[in-house]
Amino acid sequence: MNFIRNIKSLLSKKTSxxxxxxxxxxxxFSDTYYLEKALTHRSIQNHSEGNxxxxxxxxxxxxxxxxxxxxFRKYPQSDEGTLTKKRSSLVNRDFLSMLGxxxxxxxxxxxxxxxxxxxxxxxxxxxxxxxxxxxxxxxxDGGFKxxxxxxxxxxxxxxxxxDGDLNYKGQLIEYCHSNNLPTPQFTILDSxxxxxxxxxxxxxxxxxxxxxxxxxxxxxxxxxxxxxxxINFLLGS
Length: 237
Known about the structure:
The chain has 237 residues and is mainly alpha-helical. The chain has two domains: 2-162, Ribonuclease iii, N-terminal Endonuclease Domain, Chain A (Orthogonal Bundle); 168-234, Double Stranded RNA Binding Domain. 56% of the residues lie in helices and 10% in strands. Strands 1-2-3 form a three-stranded antiparallel beta sheet. Helix 4 (53-74) crosses helix 7 (120-142) and helix 6 (93-102) crosses helix 7 (120-142). The radius of gyration is 20 Å and the shape is globular.
């Protein structure tokens, strides 16, 4: 027990890396022990007490409960089927991964170099898992009130981004026309994997000094991903 307490005390001393990440989270941990675990991949610490896997399990349950309550109150006229569909769009792996990426979790996670973080699917899985683990860490550190505020701030306020019909490609083209910029060009750079599980990588180009890459399981989703990255950059978000 003394060993565990000593480790916990050591981890609770905040590094500049943790302080900077807390600013992104807009939450300050009273004890960074849980945050450090939330940012530790099993390739670093294989024991479940030392990596994010248990926190991920906890965070998943908290997200499900918080989002369910939030949707129930926000949409008083919606039936069970509609609420279930809305919740599914907000708690699926791709959406949670997007939230994790917005928090730049891949820049702070402790992970072995042997893990291929250039693989889009690996990144999607890890970013989603870490977001859930962070939720679990905030709950254990600050309680349900604090974690609810975090989920509403990062997830619920991004509800519009879960709309499958949101046309980032159309928005980008319209933005370029409105700001006298060249029409964006979308080019497939690469596609790999079996037919039922392909990954597409595309390049969005507006000018020689303005280009972005998009990744998706279809050409259309890759274009939407690239267009979204371009829109976010151009709008400074």
